[in-house]
Queue: 2 jobs
Job 1
Amino acid sequence: MKDLTPARSTLDPIEIASRDEISALQLKRLKWSLRHAYDNVPFYKNSFDSAGVHPDDLHDLSDLAKFPFTVKTDLRDNYPFGMFAVPQDQVKRIHASSGTTGQPTVVGYTANDLENWGNVVARSLRAAGMCPGDMLHNAYGYGLFTGGMGIHLGADALGLSTVPISGGMTPRQVRLIEDFKPKGITVTPSYALSILDEFNAQGLDPRDCSLQVGIFGAEPWTNAMRLEIEQAFDMHAVDIYGLSEVMGPGVSMECVESKDGLHIWEDHFYPEIINPETGQVVADGEQGELVFTSLTKEAFPIIRYRTRDLTRLLCGTARSMRRMEKVTGRSDDMIILRGVNVFPTQIEELLMQIDALSPHFQIELTRPDRMDQMRILTEIADAGVQLSARSDAASHLSALVKQSVGISVKIDVGDIGAVPRSEGKAVRILDKRPKT
Ligand code: DLL
């Protein structure tokens, strides 16, 4: 793999500023953001007033802990535009979450917000090793989802030539990668695996293709998956994180030269980690739930938003801004099976250890005879895997899960294609247990 480290001279000065400079900027912007939310969004006025705090009470960054949290239901309760802080004619773009679990959450951006978003995504793409003039194959979905258009905004700001292919039509994805020869690809890691399968199905060696870096996010993925993809494509694989409520892709980004977690663009997004049970802020280095406060957003300021993503904050390395450890799961995705907590990423990590199995998987939860059961559906890695090797692989995986997670699971190893594919975020868990 080529060294794609960006030249230091190309970075935004704030990326390598001193911690004091970053904190001073954060404090100034945080004061503005709290005031802006309080003055312009009735929800924030009510929630601050009920908690007995006022924007003027913030003297220090740590004072933020006095302010109340915002949660997803607050956004849903204010559907569609109740959380917007500017008149509608200043809202230049609207995105929304898919809303598979209820009311969609709607977010908006002013012209300045779009410019800031473009800049943080440009910074992220540069951190991945993309340079002005490089070609990017953008396979995140375009539409209300922030992935496609958010990346596109940053690609324009950085000066890339972008192929806005969006998700789906996998044979065409391969065709265009072969014909156009992009340097980078932006896509969910699970859909990257489908593209990989398609290369193999067409008899093409993905290691021979032009791609030098894959920028993967929008769903959890493991370092084991990173190795698998890096080897399969002979390219770097880096992690990009974000969420629509806070902006979209580009809230934090892993640097290609270090691959040691994601630097949070702290000049726009202020992170805290809290104990999800007590709501108390925990020290850097401790695991907990990630909470974000926007520092510059005009249309949709967000104060202490509980992301449900579990991670920890670490000091800066390749950049001065703090890192967050790779998100291995959301509290919503944590399966509690007979008293044991399990995240799908733990299964992914174990699955990767078995050569005869493909990395595609889905977890099904059922409750026969009032006992929770987990079934893992996966597939053979290639058509040449014999029946006996299949059952050996299933026993091997079941033993690994028993040993490292501590639960008994049923494993089904199907033919290639047995696990339903998604063209965006993978659906990892099918919960068929009766709702109690
Ligand atoms: O997924 C934004 C995005 C698009 C990020 C493209 C990266 C690339 P939402 O649809 O609002 O926004 O979903 C946000 O997805 O709270 C996490 O649970 C999860 N997520 C996003 N990026 C990562 C990542 C976009 N790199 C939710 N690792 C977040 C793990 C991620 N989970």
Note: The mean pLDDT is 96.
Job 2
Amino acid sequence: MTAAHPSTAPARTVLASDPDWWRQAAVYQIYPRSFADSNGDGIGDLPGVTSRVPYLSSLGIDAVWLSPFYPSALADGGYDVDDYRDVDPKLGTLADFDEMIAALHAAGIRLIVDIVPNHSSNRHAWFQEALASPKGSPARDRYIFRDGEGPDGTEPPSDWQSIFGGSAWEPVGDGQFYLHLFAPEQPDFNWHNPEVREDFLRTLRFWADRGVDGFRVDVAHGLAKDLTAPLRSHAELMEMRLATDGSHPLWDREELDEIYAEWRAVFNEYQPPRIAVAEAWVEPSRRHRYAAPSSLGQAFNFDLLRADFDAAQFRAIIDQNLESVALTGSSNTWVFSNHDVVRHATRYGLPADGGDEGAVGKAWLLSGGRSPEYDAEFGLRRARAATLLMLALPGSAYLYQGEELGLPEVADIPDSARQDPTFFRSPGVDVGRDGCRVPLPWEASAPAFGFGVDGSDASHLPQPESFARYAVDVEDADPDSTLNLYRRALALRHELQGDEKLVWLDESLVGADADASGGAALLDDAEVLAFERPSGWRSITNFGDTPVPLPAALGRVVLASGPLDDGALPPATTVWLR
Ligand code: NOJ
Ligand code: CA
């Protein structure tokens, strides 16, 4: 099979105003500082994205989700926003943004931008005003300020720990402290304040008016808080964290419904309505609250991302999520990798001693700075199989830049080059998330693997030598590369649009039918997951250790995540049949 060259990819049709475009979209996440650098300063930027639209087009994605590109001191990779309605000068200008969105739309690709409403940065004009204003002032009310405790008021208001480590309260020198659930540079907004609410509606309209098609909502489960005294202890909060009744003072509270109903009204001012997807780390049984059409409309499910490469776990997760979306009429959101977790090609190749938490434990083996030993070939083989399975599922698929190259996590970044606040606040114990944010390799033999321009070797995080084999030009030329697997899968996936049902083959092909198709043994195998989409598509994955025979009567192979073994489906392989 010949590889499609990026520059010769056919132009896609102009975007129709289909209000359901998101339901089964393949959405590609761009972490802009690490995607493509147009001026050789080592930092990826918006003109860099524009220059790579032909590549995105050849990949066959439906939409881009752009991580924050707003002015930021990068205390948390851009999730510390100084100004919600501008572009970071290091990444370009609003005019560059307009050019980028025009180029994406011309290629038939929608754009989702990241909105960070739980906290601003400490350089935001409002936070600076709050610091300069007295206790009890309207400026302080936009954030969460409280008096210190203890005999002399120098103790924090509670013993809460921030997610990146250390106290969640920072003193400001006049007896008050402010709350930051993440880094100290990320003060939490007070969502009871009407000005905060109004300002975010303005921000949503600002970007929607510029043509963005939707929003990824950061920490969507965190905005509403109940800080009525006395504050509970950190230990109590940890115990309550799995509460499913909205009673936790910080997470997943009922008042969020009201906030997102206001947002929904703004989304619906546009034609087609703007879409939103919630990043909400809540119990699966609470996810539908965010995915409801009266709310954000879609919510990430991180269940597969946390699962082992295991047939039973995958099946239970798929069933549970199909049920969950049926509650609201939303569509599923599948994801294996993003800018916060160890890349799945590496996760699946880590030693099997991930501890009690299975794959989650394994993911933290690397981020905990322990042995970076892993089996790269095996990990990639499983990752390809898992991805092909995911791309056959009903719902939208969220892909993270570089996974289409099979990029591994970079484990050996020197401490001096680390950027993630987790590393600095743990301190040094948890290496954090830089390993999945290393700039992409575009050309195997160019300086910085072609990340920059004109031979610039600048890269804001160091790229390992091993990136050469994953470079876009190398994979472009190899018909069996991960890149070409993604391209073929995404092209075929377009035929599945409009069809959101899934039927497990072992339930539909029972008894005589299964025997007639020769599939009885295969479908009885607990290590095999086989399902059908009503249009006649079949996806079969072998999660086990031994090859399984693949009867011809089950269909004609249209794509496989790895070579088949004399008509059998080898371990850690997915095949699509028709
Ligand atoms: C979730 C984002 O994905 C992550 O990168 C960030 O650190 C936190 N939210 C805080 O904004
Ligand atoms: Ca740049």
Note: The chain has 20 helices and 18 strands.
